Amino acid sequence: MAQCAYHDQLINIRRELHQFPEEGWTEFCTTAYIVKYLRELGYEVLLGEKVVSRKDCLGRDPKLVAQAIETAKERGVCECLLNEMQELTGCCAVLDTGRPGPTVALRFDIDCNNVQESGADTHRATAEGWASKRPGLMHACGHDSHISSGLAVARWVMDHKDELNGKLKIVFQPAEEGVRGAAAVAASGIVDDCDFFLSSHIAMMAKTGEIITSPVGFLCTTKYDITFKGRPAHAGIEPNAGRNALAAACHCVTQLLGIPRHGSGMTRVNVGRIVAGEGRNVIPVNAKLVMEVRGETGDINKFMATETENIVQGVAKSFGVEYNIEKMGEAVDLFNDKELVDMLDDVCSKTEGVTKVLHEVNFGGSEDATILARRVQEKGGKAAYFVLGSDRAGGHHTAEFDIDESSLDIGMKIYAEMLKRLMK
Ligand SMILES: [Zn+2]
């Protein structure tokens, strides 16, 4: 397969970013890298609250944010750029061709996972010396390649801007992991004027050469952090004076796992972490649950979320403890518009390197691009999300994860051809 003209940069930028992964809402160095690249190309780049609505950020830890800003300063990110970011990561490149035409938005996510990268010689990034330099953090979902793809597309657009009409917005979205970032980006209004919205994910269940142009089964999801606050007491002398947050949390977990399955479609519930208690002879004061629900449709997910809230309230009442429920992330389901699926099908069938165009393959997970797609559709625009197949080493979110970088050439060609047709 012939490599595209942007092959080297697709790979080099991916490997460079791979070495300094940043988790959701802390992508200051990554954002600085992207902004610098885009401005050198001549883009107007929007930052801070123009792209991310502060009050709609989910699961954003101010302590991690503050640390990350210090790290960015130490790594030489200039203060003026950090000021422009207003403590918010992500950005949006805007190009107005000056000619009438549609407004098109592309979205690429930029955060990493809380995964320790494999140190084994059989892991390519380690063997070749471009593994993560940050303990416990790794681009283990391929978002490094999403960024390099977004930047390569940005360069292609500048190289071909005389052939394009209308307006283009390239959104680099923070905090996809935990589906935390898109709601705030949507709430900023940045995609409200868009006629078309396109986004994609690398690999997942598709191999190099395969493109899934209409994945289905995106689960709606809501993520919660739940805390219980009790009252301490001596466990021997006066246990009756205490209010046991640990016991409340345990009862809460068993009840959550007992939410009935829904007759209308798939549901999921998971409590992934519980932290509680202070010491052996103290009635536990604090307890925290980190959990999520999912549902095949918005209504089914709402059922799961409402049941969760009822259980938390009920348990808190019965144990006499206080509670707090904080929403940490959310995603909705997704329905690709036929017009874009047809266009993708046609483009893919003519793209060198594409061997199979697949439909209706179950995505089986959640993805917050769906919130942006929904927002565009609600305002009358059209949206599509596709999976760019890539042979994988390791599973997504595991220490051995890697992609087949030759698939990036295919993705690049698809984005370029789609833009040519959309911005005619
Ligand atoms: Zn991902």
Fold blueprint:
Blueprint: H1 7-18, H2 28-41, E1 44-46, H3 62-74, H4 79-85, E2 91-96, E3 103-109, H5 124-128, H6 143-159, E4 167-173, H7 182-187, E5 196-202, E6 210-216, E7 220-229, H8 245-257, E8 267-276, E9 286-295, H9 298-319, E10 322-331, H10 338-349, E11 356-362, H11 369-378, E12 382-388, E13 392-393, E14 402-403, H12 406-422
Parallel strand pairs: 3-4, 3-5, 5-12, 6-11
Antiparallel strand pairs: 1-2, 2-4, 6-12, 7-9, 7-10, 8-9, 13-14
Helix pairs in contact: 1-6, 2-6, 6-12, 8-9, 10-12
The structure holds zinc ion.
Brief synopsis:
This protein has 424 residues and is an alpha/beta fold. It has twelve helices and 14 strands.
Q: Explain this structure to me?
A:
- There is one protein chain.
- The chain folds into two domains: 7-218 and 332-422, Aminopeptidase (3-Layer(aba) Sandwich); 221-329, 2-Layer Sandwich (Alpha-Beta Plaits).
- The protein is 35% helix and 22% strand.
- It has twelve helices and 14 strands.
- It has helices spanning 7-18, 28-41, 62-74, 79-85, 124-128, 143-159, 182-187, 245-257, 298-319, 338-349, 369-378, 406-422; strands at residues 44-46, 91-96, 103-109, 167-173, 196-202, 210-216, 220-229, 267-276, 286-295, 322-331, 356-362, 382-388, 392-393, 402-403.
- The strands form three sheets. The protein has an eight-stranded mixed beta sheet with strand order 1-2-4-3-5-12-6-11, sandwiched between helices. A four-stranded antiparallel beta sheet has the order 8-9-7-10. It has a two-stranded antiparallel ribbon with strand order 13-14.
- A hairpin with an 8-residue loop joins strand 13 (392-393) and strand 14.
- Helix 10 (338-349) packs across helix 12.
- It is globular and about 80 Å long.
- The model has no long low-confidence stretch (mean pLDDT 97).
- Bound molecules: zinc ion (ZN).
- Zinc ion binds at residues 141, 143, 176, 201.
